[in-house]
Amino acid sequence: MKVVHIHCEGLPCPQPVLQCRQAIEDDPDTLLVVSVDNEAAKENVTRFLESKGYAMTSVKQDGSTWKIAAQSLKVGEYPLEPQEGQAEEDDDVVWASMSCTASGDKELARTGGGTSCHHQGNGKTLVVINASGIGTGDDMLGKKLMENFIHVLPELGETLWRIILLNGGVKLATQGSPVLEALQALEHKGVSILVCGTCLECFHLMEEKQVGETTNMLDVVTSMQLADKVLSL
Predict the structure, then answer these.
(1) Cα(150)–Cα(111) distance, integer angstroms
(2) Domains of the chain, with CATH numbers?
(3) Among 32, 40, 149, 197, which residue has the least CB neighbours within 10 Å?
(4) The whole model's pTM is what?
(5) Under 8 Å CB-to-CB from 172, ≥6 apart: which residues?
């Protein structure tokens, strides 16, 4: 079976995801080996491929480099094995561990990669938050207003579909945030929470994230397109 290596080291968000999308559009049955050099890109690529029905595994190599091996669940059995002569150095480690994730990834594909059903029948409301506070003038007041806003969001009921956190808004999803428990409760109820990976990397908060999925700009744009209503702060 054909193996395609996608080298995404040094590429800005959302280029790794876009390159993966192009590869599976060209040949959905190919075996993919994707190399990335940061945690945000690894999570973005993994979540994208899961949403497309791919089983995968990942192996961390030198420093912050990751190799992700992926195959469409429609192709066949595990473990994955490339054709002779197609594997690059260290790929054997990735292929060998592939069988360990088969059953879990099949369930992800069956359920649509964790897509939220919280909005059934009532339209989809997307909330985009790009700061840890609301407005300008007094920072403490702005943070208090944001805290109140997050706690009132459940009043949207079943229409609340997704929350996207960008720029300073990603701080709301980290350890010590005054609204962390409120966001976790919303996620538990089925609200999708996406947290900008590039923003987390910029603020050095990737390890501090306690709620939501790491996302990229392609997901942000797609979410805005799919939503029936967008509330932006």
Answers:
(1) 28
(2) 3-110 (3.30.110.40), 125-232 (3.40.1260.10)
(3) 149
(4) 0.65
(5) 129, 132, 146, 150, 165, 179, 180, 183
Do the Cβ atoms of 193 and 162 come closer than 8 Å? yes
How many residues are listed for the chain in this entry? 233
- Running along the chain, 233 residues long, what does each successive block of 10 average in pLDDT? 87 90 88 90 89 87 85 60 47 46 38 42 88 94 96 94 98 97 97 96 95 93 93 94
Rounded CA-CA distance 72/76 in Å is 8
Q: CB of 210 within 8 A of CB of 173? A: yes
Nearest to 204 by CA among 22, 66, 39, 27: 39
Give whole-number Cα distances, 126 to 79, 158, 162, 227, 229, in Å: 39, 12, 5, 6, 6
